[in-house]
Recover the amino acids of this structure.
C-alpha cells in the first residue's frame, strides 16, 4: 500500500514539476521577446563600445598608468600632464604643471596651450576618475593631432589626490599653491 502511494505521489509530483518548468521557460521566452521589442529595453549582452564617440579599438591601444608610476613620471618631468576635467575643476585643484584641456572647450584650450605640448612627448591624461570620462575623448583629440605617446591615469585626479600626491590650487584644504 505504501509503495502504491509513493508511485501515485511521484507520478503526480513529477507531472507538477514538469508543468512548472514549462511555465518558467515560456515566461522567460516571453520576457526576452518583450524586452527585445521594447524601445530602451535592457541589453542582454554587454555593448561593444562602452564610451560613446570613442571606439574600444582606439582606447584599448593605450596603457593605463597607476598613480605611483604617474608620480614618478611627474617628478622626473618625463611626461606632460593633461587635465581633461572642466576648467572650473582644474582651477579648484590639479596636478602641478598640468595643462587644462577640457573636452568641451578643447579647440580653444588646445590653441592656447599648444606651445606647452609636443606631439613627440609622453602625455599622461587624467579626468574625473570615471572609466568612460572625458580623458578618453581628449586623448582621441590629441591622437588626431599627432600625439602617439598617450597614457591614462587610472582612477583620474581622485586617485592622484587620494594617494596624497602634490596638488596645485589647494582649495579643498583651504590653501593656495602647491600642497605636499
Amino acid at each position: 500500500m505504501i509503495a502504491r502511494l509513493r508511485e501515485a505521489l511521484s507520478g503526480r509530483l513529477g507531472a507538477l514539476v514538469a508543468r512548472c518548468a514549462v511555465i518558467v521557460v515560456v515566461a522567460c521566452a516571453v520576457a526576452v521577446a518583450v524586452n527585445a521589442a521594447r524601445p530602451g529595453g535592457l541589453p542582454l549582452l554587454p555593448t561593444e563600445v562602452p564610451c560613446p564617440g570613442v571606439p574600444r579599438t582606439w582606447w584599448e591601444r593605450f596603457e593605463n598608468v597607476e598613480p605611483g608610476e604617474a608620480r614618478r613620471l611627474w617628478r622626473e618631468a618625463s611626461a606632460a600632464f593633461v587635465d581633461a576635467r572642466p576648467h572650473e575643476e582644474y582651477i579648484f585643484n590639479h596636478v602641478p604643471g598640468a595643462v587644462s584641456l577640457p573636452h568641451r572647450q578643447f579647440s580653444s584650450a588646445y590653441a592656447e596651450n599648444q606651445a606647452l605640448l609636443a606631439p613627440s612627448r609622453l602625455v599622461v591624461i587624467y579626468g574625473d576618475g570615471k572609466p568612460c570620462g572625458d580623458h578618453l575623448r581628449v586623448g582621441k583629440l590629441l591622437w588626431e593631432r599627432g600625439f602617439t605617446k598617450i597614457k591614462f591615469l587610472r582612477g583620474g585626479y581622485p586617485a592622484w589626490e587620494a594617494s596624497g600626491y602634490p596638488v596645485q590650487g589647494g582649495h579643498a584644504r583651504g590653501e593656495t599653491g602647491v600642497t605636499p
